[in-house]
Amino acid sequence: MGLHDIVGHERLRASIFRAHESGKLPAALLLHGTRGIGKQRLALWIAQLTVCTGTAAEKPCDSCGPCRMVRSLEHPDIHWYFPLPRPKVSSKEKLAEALEAARFQELSEYRVQSLVPSWWDDVRGLYLGTITNLRNQATKRPSMAKGPVFIIGQAELLVPQAASPEAANALLKLLEEPPGQARFILTSSEPGMLLPTIKSRTVPLHVPALSREMVYTFLKEHFSVDERTGKWAAQLSQGSPGRAMAFLPDEGELGPLEDLRRRAFDIVVGATTQNRGPGYRLAASFPSTRARQLVDLFTFVEVWLRDLAVATAGADKLIINYDALTRLKKHANEAGIPPSRVPSAFPAVERARELARGNVNPQLVVSGLVRDLRQVLLDSSIPTAEGSSR
Ligand SMILES: [Zn+2]
Fold it and tell me: Going by DSSP bridges, is the β-strand pair 84-85/203-206 parallel, antiparallel, or unpaired?
């Protein structure tokens, strides 16, 4: 029980360790990198490093009291915040209370099982209530460490709530003037979406992808997967254990990311077949709410488009969706997509992603994307250099 062992990132950890030992570890860090790569786990490791009281040369020692408390998510000075579904309450005060209760609930679930796939099917955010709770905590004296550590996972989810810029501003004030010896570790897989003011007050550290072999070893150690499935999920995860977990089948059902990947393939194929029917029928099959989920879907659309370009160029070895190589080539051939047109399709996906972030009805977003992709990839009257079309 408690936190699983950290996977990989040895070089990064060594340099963080050196910075900490020489007193040069910045008080506000931004760990950024692909989703599911272990950024929040790494943030907890850094927190553990700063509170470890062990005397061994290697830190964190994993055996002193503070270390053990971090590993069981019970250290009183380490505060981990992450996006949560919005509780259904009316007042501001009740929201803050309900969010804190929901956070404790998730933390108690982590203590039992900390290996959770990087995938949600509900809408989550970092609401003002969460930042209010964090700020209240920051005004208290630390219990045992020199200073508290605040970890804020997926910090970019502070931004999309146009209705409450206060959440971001409240955090900004804390970062500007950290109380006492407080530390802040933010993580983000979409640092471009962070407010520039928040970004400029943190020191960025890029967390690289793991090797395919490391992800495979991780899956073998923690899940009962056969070699073929393990290697397949490791390849598709693109170096992210959290994503690899979400590809694994669960009780006979497709893994949630595999389901999305297939739907993304259908979108690309639907948009690029001469018959217009399938693409639009597909759009109509999406629910009319929960647009945020489309953000992940569109990432897969991009990977399929990239693979389409790679396949039409004959560079088979570079294909990410390697299990679909034959189908991909067959489709590219039949549809007659000129390879030079594929790059022009990416702005269309980006536009669709923006709409999804703005919570536009998913059916409209997907059918708009299908229309745009069709225009860019199939309509020979549009010059290839110009990606945007209406
Ligand atoms: Zn220790």
Answer: unpaired
Whose CA is closest to 122, among 293, 353, 359? 293
- Those residues whose C-beta lies under 8 Å from the C-beta of residue 122, and which sit 6 or more positions away, are 85
Q: What is the Cα–Cα distance from 292 to 282, expressed in whole angstroms?
A: 18
pTM: 0.88
CB atoms within 10 A of CB 226: 9
Q: Please check whether residues 85 and 152 belong to one and the same domain.
A: yes
171-187, pLDDT tens digit by residue? 888 898 888 889 999 99
High-pLDDT (> 90) share of the chain, %: 55
Q: Are 13 and 45 in contact (CB under 8 A)?
A: yes
Tally of structural domains, the chain = 2
Residue 72 counted as domain residue: yes
Question: Position 205: which residue type?
Answer: L
Output the CA 153–ligand 1 centroid distance in Å: 23
Residue 360: give the domain boundaries. Answer: 249-378
Per-residue confidence (pLDDT) for residue 211, from 0 to 100: 95
Distance 258 CA to ligand 1 centre (A): 39
Strand partners, 188: 32
pLDDT tens-place string over residues 216-258: 999 999 999 999 999 999 999 999 999 999 999 988 899 989 9
Q: Which residues surround ligand 1, an ion (CB under 5 A)?
A: 52, 54, 60-61, 64, 67
53 Cα–ligand 1 center, Å: 5
**Sheet order of strands, 78-81 included:** 78-81, 149-152, 183-188, 28-32, 203-206
Among the listed residues 217, 370, 352, 372, the one whose alpha carbon sits nearest the alpha carbon of residue 295: 352
Cβ within 8 Å of residue 33, ≥6 positions away: 39, 189, 206, 207, 208, 209
Residue 1 lies in a domain: no
Predicted confidence (pLDDT) at residue 92 exceeds the cutoff of 70: yes
Q: Is the pLDDT of residue 383 over 80?
A: no
